[in-house]
Amino acid sequence: MAKITTPRRPAAIPGTPGSRPRSAPVGRAPNARSGAHAKARPKTKAKTKPKPWTPAETEEAFRRFQAANPAPRGELVHINPYTLLVAVVLSAQATDAGVNKATPALFAAADTPEKMVALGEARVRDLIKTIGLYRTKARNVIRLSEILIAEHGGMVPPLREALEALPGVGRKTANVVLNIAFGEPTIAVDTHIFRVGNRTALAPGKTPFEVEMNLEKVVPPPYKLHAHHWLILHGRYTCVARRPLCETCLINDLCRWPEKTV
To answer: Which distant-in-sequence residues (6+ apart) come within 8 Å of 142 by Cβ?
Structure first.
């Protein structure tokens, strides 16, 4: 008697309805990982915001700055408000020390707007060529001198708006002139103050203007006139960018920087 055999069902052709890859189990996408085989992603630790300084701590910090340096002064060499204005304009993206090497000869030849204009842009450029961006700065010095003569009687105006209208003068420069030349309790935020304000958490901010506004809020009024100088000097010589000298810092115990060395 002949043996009866059942015909085998032909395999589905890939890409046709009803077909599926043999390597992919039903209900699971290829290469999917689950359970114990899943690779856990490392959790990133949330950055904690430093605790704000209390008014008493801020008062203590500036009391110490005052005790250590009762009458701080700016380091730019100048003769009068006009030469101060010129020196600050020249100091943009340059060091005070570098500016001080170039300005004695410049100010000996021209310590007023009238003399500066008479000196001429080419001669000014030659005298300050050791300073970065000297071509643009020489042009700005001549132009601002002309404006001072034409609009302010050759005098430096004690007004922020008038100062900021001059070529090469921004908010920081205006604040320096108002503070040093006219005794206004302004705070000029340069790279040093910006670093100190953020690193210590005394007055954090994403921009120099934010740091300035926060310092205006927290610095006690009796210390505002010299706060600008104390913070600049602190950032320039103690709270330096690469390796702050925490071991000699006057406000180490108040500072909120998590990486301080003491």
So the answer is: 116, 117, 120, 121, 124
